[in-house]
Amino acid sequence: MNFLQRTPFFRLLLPLVIGIILYRYFDLFPWSQMSMLILSVLIFAVSFVLQRSKLQFKFRWLYGSGIFLFLVIIGYSISNQNATKSNFDNIEIPGIFSVELTESPIEKENSFLCRVKTLQYFEKDKSTNSVGRALVYIQKDSLSQKLKSGDQLLIETTFNKPDGVINPAGFNYKEYLKRQGIAATTYIPGYKWTKIGTNKEFSVFRLAEEYQKKLLDIYKHFGIDGDEFAVLAALTLGSKDALHPELRQNYTTSGGMHILAVSGLHVGIIYMVLSLLLSVLDKNKHTKILKVILIILLLWIYAFITGLPPSVVRATIMFSMIALGNGLNHKSEIYNTIFASAFLMLLFNPDFLFDVGFQLSYCAVLSIVYFQPKISKGLYFKNKLLKWSWDLTAVSLAAQIGTAPLTLFYFHQFANYFVITNFVAIPFATIILYTAILLIIVSPIAFVSTAVAFVLKWILRILNTSIEFIHDMPFSVTFTTINAIQVLLFFGIVILIAYYFHSKKYFAIFSAFSLLLFFLIINLTINYKTLNSTQFIVYSDYQNTHIDFIAGKNHAVLTTDSVALNKVAQNYWLKNKLNYKKEVLSACILSNGFIDFQGKRFCILLDESLKGKISENPIDVDYLIIANHVKPHFDKLLESIHPQKVVVDKSISKWYADNIEQTCVEKGIRYYSVAQKGAFILNLKD
User: Which of 17, 52, 382, 541 is 20 to 30 Å apart from 276, CA to CA?
Assistant: First the structure.
C-alpha cells in the first residue's frame, strides 16, 4: 500500500486544515457555505447511486471529492463557531462586573494574573448577563493571595481590548489571546474588588488544578525549592509559574527548553513506566484488556493534571492509540496515529493549528519518525554506549530538521549546541521523571522519601548547572530570522531532498535546488531593500523611550533602557538584516534635544530642559517628539518651537497626551499618538 492508503486520517486532516485556513484568510457568504455543503452532499449521494452501475470505476473519485468538500466546510464552520468564544459584552464600558476565576491566579511581581469569565454587568439599578473571557491583573495584597479557581468577584473596572502589533515585526498579543478565547484585559486596584462567593459545582479542570497543587506541595514539603523546584514543576507537571526570566533564558539559549514543555517525551516516559508496572497483567487476554484500560485512563489523568496543553493532548491521544493497538495485537501505523490525533484536536479547537507549540510538536514528531531511522543507519557501532549516543544524536538532528524553520521564524534564534544539550537534558529529564514518580509513591514513608527527595534535588541542581554552563559557552546561540515564505520553501526543500533519496529521481533534487535559489533571492531582496531605506522610528513602550535612526544597514538608537530596547526592537532589526552592532546615543549627544537627520529636523523632548524658555524667533522643526514621561506645558513649549508634526510616545500619561492632542487640533498641527496607533515609523527614502 502507498502512503495515502496507509494513512486515511491524512486524507481527512488535509481538507479540515484547508477549511480552517480558508476561514482565517477569506470571508465566505452564508449562501456560499450552504451551496458548498449541499454540493458535497449531492456528490456523496451520486457516488452511492453509481455503486450499482457500470460507471462506478470511472467516477470513483466522486466519493472522495464529496468527503473532501464536506470536511473543508466543517473546518470553516467550526472555526467560525470557535471565533464566537472570543466575543466580549460591554467592552470598553466602565461599570461593575461579577466575574469568576476559571484558573488559579498566577503570581507576578506586583499583581496576580487571573483568567476570568464575566457573569453579569451592573448598570444603575439593573443588571444584565455578560459573556466574555478576560485577563484581570489584581493588585497584590493579603486578600488577593487567597484567591483560587472558582472564586466569584465583584469588580469595578473598564475592560480594554488588548494591543495588537504595536511595534514593527512585533508580537501580536491580541491575536495570541484571541486564540485562547480571551478578548479583554484590565487592572484592578485592591479597593475595587470584593469576593462574593465561590462556584461549588464540579469541574474537572478545577479538580485537576487541586491535584496538581497537592503534588507541587509534596515537592515543597521535602525542601525542593528555588530553581530546582521551578524546573521540576515545569518538567513533570507543566507548571511554569516559578520559572524566572534568567532560568528560562538559560534553557532557551542552550536548546533545552523543550524538556520544560511537557510533551511527547514526557508522556512517552510515563507510558513506558505504566507499561512496565502493569506488565504483570499480560498473562491472558482479559487482564491485557484491563492493562490497556488502566494505561489509557492514567495517561489522561496525567494530561488533565498538566492542564491539557496541545502537546500533551496530542501525545496522549497518540500513546492511547498505540496502547489500544498493542492490546488488540494490531501493529499501529505511526503516521496514521499522528494524523488522527491532529484531526481530533483540530475538531475540538481549530485554533490549535495556529498555536506555535502545536506546530513545533507535530513537526518534531513527524521529523523524528521519518529521519531518525535513516540518520541512525548512517553509522553503525557495536559498542552499546556508542550506539546509544549515536541514536540520541540522530533523534536530536531529526527533530531539528523539522523544527528549525519554525524556530527561526517565531523565535529568531538557533541554539548552536543543541546536540550537546540533548545529551544532558534528555537522560536527566528521564531520570528526574522516574525519581519524581518514585518520590510521590513513597512520600508517606518518612526516611525513604527524604532520601529520594535529596537525590532528586541534587539531580536537578546538576541539570541546571549543566544547562547554565552550555548557555555561557561562546557562540551558544545564533540570532537570525526567516519570513513565512522562506519557512514554506525550507520545508519544500527538505521534502524534495527526502523524496530524492527515496526515489532517486533527479527532478526532485533539481526542484530542491530551485527552491533554495528562491530562498536566497528573498534574502538578497531584503538586504537590497534595507540598503536603500532610511527610517526614523519611535517604538512603543509603556515604561521607556526608544528612538531609532536607520540609514541603510546601520542605525543609531536613543534609548532610556538598553535591555528593554532589545525586547522591543530586536525582531525588526533581524527581519530587515540590520547590523546588530548599533550605536547607542545618549541625550547629551543631542544639542538641547535637536538633531538633523536626512534633511529633517527633529526636536526630542526627554526632560524639562526647555521648560520656561521663550524665544523671540521660535525654532522651526519638522517633528517634535515628546517622550520619557515628561509633563510639558504644551502651550508654553510652542512659544519656542514650531513643529510641523507632534509625536507623543507611549510613556506620556493619557491626560497629558489628550491635552497635547487638543492643542494640536486647535493650532492645526499634525498629531500622532504612539499609545493609540503603535510605533511611529517615518520612511525618509522609499
Answer: 382
Backbone φ, ψ for residue 16 (5° rounding) = -65, -45
Per the CB < 8 A criterion, the answer to whether 193 and 137 are in contact is no
Rounded distance between C-alpha atoms, residue 655 and residue 643, angstroms = 21
Which stretches of the chain score pLDDT less than 70? 1-2, 44-63, 328-332, 581, 585-592, 609-615, 686
Phi first, then psi: give them for residue 309, nearest 5 degrees.
-70, 155
Going by the DSSP 8-state scheme, the letter that residue 160 receives in this structure is B
Q: Report the pLDDT value the prediction gives residue 685, as an integer from 0 to 100.
A: 72
Q: Are 112 and 137 contacting, i.e. CB atoms less than 8 angstroms apart? A: yes
State the cell numbers at 531: 540598503
**The predicted structure's pLDDT at residue 332:** 63
Ordered by start, the domain boundaries in the chain are: 3-85, 95-201, 484-517, 534-685
For strands 534-538 and 477-479, give the pairing: unpaired
Secondary element (H or E) of residue 646: strand 641-648
Nearest to 426 by CA among 257, 273, 250: 257
Q: How far apart are CA 187 and CA 155, in angstroms?
A: 10
DSSP H/E element including 194: strand 193-198
What is the identity of the amino acid at 344? L
From 78, 388, 392, 425, select the one nearest 263 (Cα to Cα): 425
> Closest by alpha carbon to 479, among 419, 415, 528, 431?
415
State the alpha helices, DSSP H only, in 532-586: 562-575
pLDDT in tens, 150-160: 899 999 999 99
Can you tell me the distance from the alpha carbon of 524 to that of 625, in angstroms, rounded to the nearest whole number? 34
Class in CATH terms, 534-685: alpha beta
Residue listed under C-alpha cell 491626560: 655
Helix (H) / strand (E) containing 490 = helix 484-503
pLDDT digits (tens, 9 = 90+) for 367-396: 988 898 888 888 888 888 888 888 888 888
595 SS3 class: strand
Integer Cα distance of 652 and 675 in angstroms? 9
- Pick the closest to residue 578 from 558, 545, 540, 548 (CA basis): 548
Angle at 57 between CA 53 and CA 61, to 5 degrees: 115
CATH fold label, 95-201: OB fold (Dihydrolipoamide Acetyltransferase, E2P) (2.40.50)
CA-to-CA dists, residue 164 to 161, 171, 179, angstroms: 9, 8, 13
Q: Give the DSSP letter of residue 376.
A: H
